């Protein structure tokens, strides 16, 4: 396998070799997409075996014994807590070797990547009484299954319901991933029949100019499916812009560099095809923390940049992950330096099972206040709330009212559904 370009040798550390299981895994193996897929951690027995191998005997932390996680002092108590969390969580567990290699297993309770993927039974708080499984009312706004049409000129095509990783806080936990003990999924499997109904709706709705192809994750569409969907959409005269949504660059960047795999080549070809007919095709990805970025990520981002693929990033604001100015600023700068446009920072959605990860609205308002002006305007993300109930994305600072005591903020969305409705976002109810 040949890499698209070479980094300075000093930066090329085999960071995966700190995992005892992967001590002897070569660079060539680790960078192969087939190896990444074959060694992805999913299912409780594989997870327990991995954690037993990687965790120290004693789990260090400075938490008081009375706190929710204070009792977790040994490897076994942590593994038991994670397995309990998996049975309570709305998302099944799947994590790539790239991500597993970037977690600090000597300090897992304070690791920002660990928090995003591994639920802890003791840390799951009661859901806010106003939250719902499909918080953004996507199914209610779907004229055909798997096509959300909320804004006048934009639609969201859910082409699959599978992802290379499953994020605990996924907005689409009603549909994405395998069924869990707590959620029977309304999955949107890739199927030509279903896609045909989606294409037909788009073809007959001339006011739609923008399509986001998501899921699930477009990384789990076969390269030929990427080409088929993209070419079909580009052939529709009123479609001017297409975005493929994939966390792949963040969680399995080596695929972009793997010349034995053709996913990136399909995307590059579509971007070029789009340019030739004056239409824009882009990749939207999802980094939440600077620790997710390695030399492999930098190479993959450079490869896409050299080939003319526009990449934008959508970060989710998460408590204990990126809810401070230093981390968020550093993430934005790292993305900008890789020519990935920091496009959105989202307030965490009001979905099931992740109250420990949500922040009050005030956090995103404070972040924007401190970050805006510290980096070029075109590299400054919009700080937004995707309104519960289907009001769409609004700037967090555009709230109509915000009662900080009760934690209730109100918004209006003039361009959505007649613009009359008042939408409410509820801060998490404070735990310990
Ligand atoms: S990659 Fe995206 S769609 Fe998949 S679980 Fe994460 S947030 Fe949800």
Automatic annotation (TrEMBL):
Signal peptide: none annotated. The keyword Iron-sulfur applies. The keyword Coiled coil does not apply. InterPro entries: Aldolase_TIM (IPR013785), Lys_aminomutase/Glu_NH3_mut (IPR003739), rSAM (IPR007197), rSAM_sf (IPR058240). Its cofactor is pyridoxal 5'-phosphate. This is Kama family protein. GO terms for molecular function: 4 iron, 4 sulfur cluster binding; catalytic activity; metal ion binding. Keywords: 4Fe-4S, Iron, Iron-sulfur, Metal-binding, Pyridoxal phosphate, S-adenosyl-L-methionine. The lineage of its organism: Eukaryota, Fungi, Dikarya, Ascomycota, Pezizomycotina. It comes from the Eukaryota. It comes from Mytilinidion resinicola.
